[in-house]
Records
---
Amino acid sequence: MRVFLTGATGFIGSHIIPKLLERGHQVLGLTRSDAGARQLEAAQVDVHRGNLDVPETLASGVAAADAVIHCAFDHDFENFFENTRKDERNIAAMGQVLEGTKKPILITSGVGIGTPLNGGPATEDVLNPLHANPRIATELAGAALIARRIDVRTIRLPQVHDTTKAGLITPLIAEAYRAGAVAYLGEGQARWSAAHVSDVAELYVLALEKGQPGARYHASVEEGVTARAIAEAIGKGTGLPVRSIGADDVEHYFGWMTPFAGLDMTASNAWTCTRLGWEPTGPDLLTDLAAMDYSALTAA
């Protein structure tokens, strides 16, 4: 297949590319810059010029491909709500091209959207339309395409990591440098699911080749790692003190990440593994945090 890949120069997309090429697929990668074009050309990927702020440029990429993997997202968290609306507009624009075809599109969301109303780990069969995370806009946009008989498959991400990045933990490290200490709320029992980026990239390709229309797949490998364990690993790597804090101190230590301080983001992958034959092999989160180069991560 010729696959249109948004986010092709990003953290996850750059790991998806070699896995697609290894399986004999062609890749058309989205980029808005000359530097990105050079990166894609070096990776033996065809270049499609476009911009997340101009949905029509994504739509033209869809028209030139047999399938779509959409993993691009504007990670400016100061404008998180608007960026989820941007994602909604881009999915709608791509959907207009896909309507009436059998081309699949894989969209990207977060595992929290599958959290049951009564609590517990997120599961693939749950779509909570009232979820407080603005990223729900992505899945509702996908649901609108499914209602029009478009082949939409959703990949829900946990904290995706290697030794250079680790999802929301990367900005958490920057906040710790700013505050002068690594903090966790209370006893630090809130848990976040996680997966190594190589395993996540493999899942995207499996969902493309073996996935089913309308299905949601969880890219979580570890169901949940405690906030205290994460904080202690960061403290060891940075040399910063580690502190248990109360609710009154959360904003000082977590900054814009305050809403995440006590949030449980656990997720099961049992259904995903069974359906796709996904067998993760990458290192776990704490192993990568122990090997991370913290000198490159600062409050700046």
---
Amino acid sequence: MSQSTRILLQTTIPTTEDDWSIWRFSMLKDYLASLTDEAENPLFEVTARDRQTNDEGDDPLLSTLDQSDFEQLWLFALDVGEGLTEKDRAGINAFRQRGGGILATRDHQDMGCSMCGLIDIGDVHYFNSKNPDPDQSRCDRDDPYTTYISWPNYHSGANGDYQKIMPVAPIHELLQDIEFFPAHPHEGGIGVNVNNPNARVIALGKSLVTGRDFNLIVAIEHYKDSQDQMLGRVLAHSSFHHFVDYNWDTDKGCPTFVDEAPGNGMKQERRALEDIKTYVRNAALWLAH
């Protein structure tokens, strides 16, 4: 029997009923856990948890993640600055330095900015008050409707609708035959430093308001650091809404602070849900190698 890859789905916020806590990622968890190989052995063993803290204020798992038997971290950074401590970031960095794969995502404005300090990941995510987009023309509001949310906030569509992605040539293996992703009214900003040869933007989205293209996914390949350690692969996404239940099926509900009207595109276009599930499978397999 083949051994399953152990995946940790992790938020940076404590469990809260009226928030985007990890239980709102149940469809992602169940789908990953359902995948099998040709012999019907499970491909992935999935653990899902919200942030917890010990007496020192650190998350006892994240701060020692390199000592765990997890092989992948899917990090949903939902905080606005205090979601990861210095020790948490050190544990995650050490995890990647031993070869662990990471999918790291956030959302608009400063959501997820506690990821600043994570190797590579903190550089490819652009925030409002930390590590802003070096292209100053992008440091302004894109979504004009939700006025209490500032840039970056690219409007790819309503929650519950889908967006047509634009793969960047050469088309990455993760995106073969994938056309649609869940949409969101205010996606965050990501990008790549031209001096980083290991990272590239692999997919773009388009704002339905301004018509501007924006970076949807950044992929970072294995590489050896200055200590000759082979770092694990990374995927950075502009929004956690690509993966949360509400954007796959609005019937799953959302926190009460979400006040934008939902769409029904994901329900009308069956291919859209199939595409994001195919991408999830591809991502989990890619990060495992």
---
Amino acid sequence: MTSDTPTFLAQFARHPLTTGAVLPSGATLARDITAAVPRVGHPLVVELGPGTGAFTRAIQERLAGRGHHMAVEVNPAFATGLARRHPIVEVVRADAATLDALLAERQLPSADVVVSGLPWAAFPADRQRAILHAVVATLGRGGVFTTFAYRHALPTRPARRFHRLLTGVFDEVTVGRTVWTNLPPALVYHCRRPLHR
């Protein structure tokens, strides 16, 4: 258990459909999902649903002070804690479905990488489509979208629908290895070249 576990459990109890998990993601999953963040240049990295910051820390390690990191979190408790722990990250309390508008308001360029910690299997179809549409609208040419799924949830209807949605929107969807040490075990989707813009 990490020091973030009590906070995560409390938020899951209050907001199960937007928190989506009872424990924060582990370091190995964080490393896998952030592998697309460039180690050179000054990329724009957008993080959706950062929660207590398991992926935020890994993104910051890869950026090492370069580029711009914007984290979009709808939960006020998570957003406040994240901003306090990561003052260099631009934490925005907003709905992920408004991502394209958020970048436009800030006059930010297209995102190089969008990393998602959102609980896709907990969302209805229209919510999945709305958020993914906003992601595609913000990705630059050559941009990468990464997200994860819990291994046990893969056979469920929402998870299968989300996978079909990904393959219908991106030219390349690569499924990473299962991270068995994560609780629960999870795998990463690496998505490239949006088909519809």
---
Amino acid sequence: MPNTYSQIYLQLVFATKGRETRIGATIKDDVEKYICGIFRNKGQKVLAIYANPDHIHILFSYKNLQITVPELVKIIKTESTNFINEKNLICGKFSWQEGYGIFSYSRSQKDSVCNYILNQAQHHQRRNFREEYFGFPEQVRY
């Protein structure tokens, strides 16, 4: 087979340092767009993204196998931190917490996970980040 084909759907979740509420409504769109640009520049396709005040969810199609997931996450977190700080989007210094969660899904689950991510505002009225994170992947029912 002369070409490489992959169909890998991953959900990336990581929090702000100390889980502080740092991503307000005024910067949410800018942060999401910037992070989508980083993914695109690294040969990945974002299917859904939602920046909560204290954490972010990103579902992406992992296509460029020339970069490992840990390398990609490091780039995403470093470049988005630099963007927020250099543009002075918040008062004080911004940073992401160390670590992350990465969860894989099948093609048949893709739409459900997209809906879950895009409806984070409603979801977090019922369940906080800690409950959500430690319930992965059980909380996303298909």
